Task: structure prediction
Amino acid sequence: MKTPDIAANKKGIMIHPIVNKQEKRMRALVRIALYLMLTILVASVPVFIPDTSTEFIVRALLCLGLYYIMIRYVDLRSWNESGLILSKAWVKEGMAGLAIGALAMGLIFGIEWVSGSLKVTGFGWQGTSSALWMWPVLAYLIQMISVGFYEELIGRGYILRNMTEGFAIGKVSTVQSAIIAIVLSSAIFGLAHAGNPNVSWIALFNIFVAGIMLAVPFVITGRLSLSIGIHIAWNFFQGGIYGFPVSGLEVRNSLIEIRQGGTELWTGGDFGPEGGLAGLLGIVLALIFSLIYLKIKEGFLALAPDFAQTYKEKRNITD
Result:
């Protein structure tokens, strides 16, 4: 017995809840749900690896493999739409992202230091006569490169992209669907940190805003490089250089050792800058720096071609 469809469009054509028959693929919500379930499984595999840095690298590679499979064989999209196609523009934007993330976190550190909200208590090389003090910092760099890479694949590369495609229906324009997708994917990004130690409502809000900050460059360029660069530098300089907690997680080895003071509302306390107003200021500055960079580079700010067209328009699918 045939299972009936549960809805119909304005033309009276029955709408399948799982499969978009016109596009010949699963619907966006189903694709996202499947991807998230598979990501949880894939990301849990490397926890059995004893070396932490290797664990993070393997997780990043597994997430990349899943990303490829989902884009090519589930989304039925070209790899050119992955945001990972290497080019001179990709590399330049990645370097710009690293600079923006480092600058934003440096400003947070500088403002807190000048205002007396933190005190420098030492440096990583003190107390040792060898260069071994650098290895934990380098290991942390490897970990943050991995985290910045695979979290951007998940949050922006896949979820944001598919949400944008899913909401571009009816009278909803691609610009409107991109805005909706940015907000919702950033909310998911924020909620994904809800289980972190010392989390607060302002921390969740700040990470939500950080999600928006990381999403905007992607929808403008169609490349993940600027977002990946910002994410990597933000995390590494936050914990590996300046000694702040990173999203509630304590970093034991850093270039600069600090003692946090000031009010928790401003500094974020044990959650780190992302849990306070100082972090929110840094996030907003990173977004402003990104927009200035893109305005200078592009001459104007608009949706990237990959985002400006719907899936049907790209493939000349008619209703």
